[in-house]
What does this fold into?
Amino acid sequence: MRRSDQPSLPGLAPTEVPRGPPHRLFFALWPDAALREAVAGTTEALVRLHPNDGRRLRADRYHMTLQFLGDIPAPRRDEVVARATGAAQAVASAAVDLVLDHAGGFPNARVWWLAPAAAAELRRLWDALGMALLHAGQKAKASPGFSPHLTIVRDVGARLPATPVAPLRWRVDRFVLIDSQPPKPYRIVGEWPLVR
It folds into this structure.
């Protein structure tokens, strides 16, 4: 592409493409403050039982990813957010009652997580959002399948075996679109309620 053929943005000459770190965009379930506190307590108990060299996530970073849109270059961020917003507005799913009742780790992923044993309703939300994204022209990043989990420890050297935990109840009545640019805090750029 010749320089003169590059698309220009309002107020910028064709050679002045906005720069900056990419925006990691993803849809997620966002816990309330009480659940964040409960997850932090469960994490503390697990770390005491299984000492490790990992990095515990701060409570303000707890979330459960629904659909991952990818690391989006700064010039494309607004375009992707607009398509993702259109997709989210098309989703009509019921609120979900989750119970985080076990902990574990993925092979070779170097993370520990909490997860629900049953997640059929959550899978329907994941499917509905994925289809809405396709119809909006915004593909989510391919994944081998949906494994709902809330990450609690990263960069850990030893995998956590399947471990039951005291049940943490989570009434999921909304989902959000997150813009992540580490080391900045997560930024919620959209929020959509689920039908009660």
